[in-house]
Amino acid sequence: MTPAAGAGADPIRVLLAKPGLDGHDVGAKLVCRALMEAGMEVIYTGLRQSPAAIAAVAMQEDVDVVGLSILSGAHVPLCRKIAEALRSAGVREQVVWIVGGNVPPRDHAALRDMGVDGVFPTGAPFDSIVEFIRGRVRP
Amino acid sequence: MTEPKDARTAAKPPAPDEPSPCVWESGLAIKPVYTAADVEASGGAEAIGLPGEYPYARGIHPLMYRKRPWTMRQYSGFGTAAETHERFLYLIRHGQTGLNVAFDLPTQCGFDSDDPMAEGEVGRVGMAVDTLADVEEAFEGIDLNRITVSLTINGAAVPVMAMYFAMARKRGYDLATLHGTAQNDILKEFIGRGTWIFPVEPSVRLVGDTMEFCARHAPKYSPVSVCGYHIRESGATPAQEMAYGLSIAASYVDHVLARGIGIDAIAPGLSFNFDIHGNLWEQVAKFRAGRRLWAKMMKETYGARDPRSLQLRMIAGGGGGGLTIQQPENNIVRGAYYALASALGGTQTMALCSYDEAYTIPSERAARLSLRTMQILMHETGLADTVDPLAGSWFVESTTNEMERLIEALMEEVKSRGGMIRAVAEGWVQAEVNRQAYEREKLIRAGAVPKVGVNCFEEEEAGPDVEMHPYREEETGRQIERLRRVRRERSGEAVRACLARVRAAADNGENVMPPVMDAVEAYATVGEVCEALRQVFGNYREPVRF
C-alpha cells in the first residue's frame, strides 16, 4: 500500500461499504482505487452488508472514515439503521461518515440530520472526496 | 443557469493538417480514410454475405425491418403488481409491443417483502413479487403471445419463471406454444449487477435446469438472455462485452450438452442482451462481428444445424452508462443516437434508458418519450427502407473484421483461464472489468475523453429539472399485508410438502423446475423457494476485488 503523502503520518483508514441489496458497485470500486492512490488505506466490504456488520468492521478495523455507496434509492431508511448501528458499536463519534451514490439533493438534509458528514452524489470529483476526508480526519 | 462556466470548456481544435488520433474504446486505431485495400488487409469481403444467411453479419433475417419492425420493450416496473400493471397498460396503449419487467431488489435477491433484508427496498427499483398472486395481477388481461414478456430476473429466476409459467397455464396457454424471455444469466450477475444468491456452480446448474425444462416443455420460450450489457455497464469495452457474453453463452451450452440434450434443442432458446452507448461505429462493428462469431462457433465448434441455432438474436438497448446526471435533457438526444446504433446493428428488440433514469424511476412522460424516439426512427427516417444499409462500406467492413479478431482473442484468453465459470469464480473477469472501468474513468475525469456537460460544455446547474418518482412507503405495508393473506389462505401443509420436494431435487441433482412449479402453484413464496435452495446450495461468498 502506498504511504500517505504526509511524511511519517499513519495513513488514513477508510471503510467503504455497500449496504442493502443494491448490486451497483462500479462507483464504490472506483472510489476505493482513487482513495488508495491518494495514499489512504481502504477496506471494501463487498455487497449486501447489514448495518450491524458495517458497524462491527468499523470498530474492529479502527477506521477513520465510514463511506457508504447506495444507488437503489433506499439511502434514507438504510442510513437511519446504520446511524443506530454505529452508535451502538460506540464508533459514531470517532468516524467521519460519508455517503455516495444516487442521492438526490432533496434528501441531503435528511441524511445530515442523521449525522452524515458529507454527501457525494454520482459524478462527484474524486478530489473533492479526498480533500473532504483529509480536512475532516487530519485537519 | 445556462451560462458556460468558463472559456476553457470550449473544445480545442486540432492542429491544421494533423488528424487528431482516434482509438476506439476496444483498442482499434481508426484511420481517417478507408479504401478497398483496408477491407482486403483486414481479412477480405467473403464473410459479408447476405442478410438471413450464414454467417449473418448483415442480420439474421433476409428482410429484417422491411418485414417486421424491432420489438419495442421499455424496462418497467415499480411498487406493487397493481401499480406495475397500470404502467404496462399505459405503455401498450402508446404502441409498445413487448414488456420488459423490472423486479424490486428483494424479489431479485430471493427475499420476501416481510424479510428484514427487504426493509426499505420493497417495490423501490421494480415490482415486488412474493407469490403467484402478484404475477397473476401484473399480467391480467394482457395477451402473452401478442405482447411478449421479458422477465429481468436472474438469481431468483427459478421461482419467478415458474410463477410466470403457472400463471400462463392457469389462463389457458399451452407451454408448448408460449413465447417470452427470461434474463436468467447468472454468470454476468457475478461480474456486474450483483443479484446473485447461490455459489457459482449451483447457480449455473439452476440455469441449466431452466434450459432443460424449456427444451422439453416450453420450446418457444427463451429461458436465457445472455447479457454482455451489464458487463459493459460495469466498465468493459465493447469488445470485452461481446467476448465475455459469447463465452458465458458457451458455458451454459457446455453445461446443458453434458445432460445429453442436443445443441439444436438448446441454442435456439438462447438470446442476447447488448449495450448501445459509446462510439456508434464501434457498436455497429461489435454487433456485426458478434453475429459472425456466434454463427461460426455454433456451426464449427458445436455442430449445430438448425439455422435458429446459428442466429444471434438480441435486444440491443439501454445505454445507461452513457447517460449523464448533468444536463439530463441531453440524454434524450443521446438516446436517439443510441437507438440508431442499435438499429444499424441489426437488433430484434430495442429498449432505451429514459433521460431521467440517472435520478429516478422514469416518469410516464419520460418512458413515452423513449418509445416515441424508437417510433420516429422506425417510421419517419427511412431507417427501415433497406436491410443493413452500412454493408459494403470499406470502413464498416474493415472494422467489423478487426473487431471480430479482437473479440476472438479475448474469448481465447477466457478459454486459457479455464472457461467462464472458473474465470468468474476466481474473480478474474471481475478484476479485468474493474481495471478497465478505472482507466476509462480517469480518462473522462482528465478530459481526454470528451463528455458533453461533464468535462466540456459544462453549466452551473441549479438542480435537475426532472419529475421524481414518488416512492410510496404505504405500498410496502399493503404488499406485506397481501403476502400474509396469501400465506393464511393457502394450504400450509401442501406448501411444506412441495418445498421438501424442491430440497430433495436440489440435493440429488434432479431438475428443480417441476417441483418448483408445484410449489408456486400451491402459493409458496419467492423467499421460501430460494430458502429451500439455499439450504442445499448455501450462499455465494463474493471474492472482493477492485
Fold and architecture overview:
The complex is a heterodimer of chains A (139) and B (546). Chain A has helices spanning 26-37, 51-60, 75-88, 108-113, 126-137, and strands at 13-17, 41-44, 65-70, 96-101, 118-121. Chain A has a single domain, classed as Cobalamin-binding domain (Rossmann fold, 3-Layer(aba) Sandwich), CATH 3.40.50.280. Residues 1-7 of chain A have low confidence and may be disordered. In chain A, strand 1 (13-17), helix 1 (26-37) and strand 2 (41-44) form a beta-alpha-beta unit. In chain A, strands 2-1-3-4-5 form a 5-stranded parallel sheet, sandwiched between helices. The radius of gyration of chain A is 14 Å and the shape is globular. Helices cover 39% and strands 18% of the residues of chain A. The longest helix of chain A is centred in the middle third of the chain and has 14 residues, at 75-88. The longest helix of chain B is centred in the last third of the chain and has 23 residues, at 394-416. Chain B is an alpha/beta fold. Helices cover 48% and strands 6% of the residues of chain B. Chain B has helices at residues 36-41, 64-67, 81-93, 105-109, 132-138, 157-170, 186-191, 200-217, 229-233, 238-257, 263-266, 280-301, 307-310, 330-344, 364-379, 394-416, 420-425, 428-445, 473-489, 492-508, 513-521, 526-537; strands at residues 71-72, 75-76, 98-101, 148-151, 180-182, 221-222, 224-227, 270-275, 314-317, 349-350. In chain B, helix 10 packs across helix 16. A 5-stranded parallel sheet of chain B has the order 2-3-4-5-6. Chain B has one domain (36-48, 68-445): Methylmalonyl-CoA mutase (TIM Barrel, Alpha-Beta Barrel), CATH 3.20.20. The interface between A and B is large, with 34 and 39 residues.
